[in-house]
Amino acid sequence: MGVNVTAIAASGLQAQRIRMQVISANLANIQTTHGPNGKPYQRQVPILTAVPVGNEFEVELDQQRKLYAVRVEQVKGADREPLWVYDPGHPDADEQGYVSMPNINLVEEMTDMLNAARSYEANLASLQTARNLDKQALDLGKS
Asked: Is 40 helix (H, G, I), strand (E, B) or coil?
């Protein structure tokens, strides 16, 4: 019943990859005023959740262990009202000349992107460390 470092790190890598994809979509649609539903693009956020590592029997048997991996539960729209920008020449402007724009903060998205990249790097480093430790253990067994 060893610690499955690979599964924990891999779940972190996958979660951060999905975060980066969501952030990229937010940045790509920062000026999208007219989506498929006729409304401006809505900022998306991934909802992450902790899941116990191991099969159900191992988790129930060892309650003290408390090892968790991460999983993206869902990607949902943020609860933000659109921004109204005065641009009378815009094709989507209303009668008063205002355009409903996505409420996406470029600085917030870039900060989230850096955070996701650093988290990805940390998970990758732990995966590489576990791999090196496994290799060293195998080399000790050969001696």
From this structure: coil
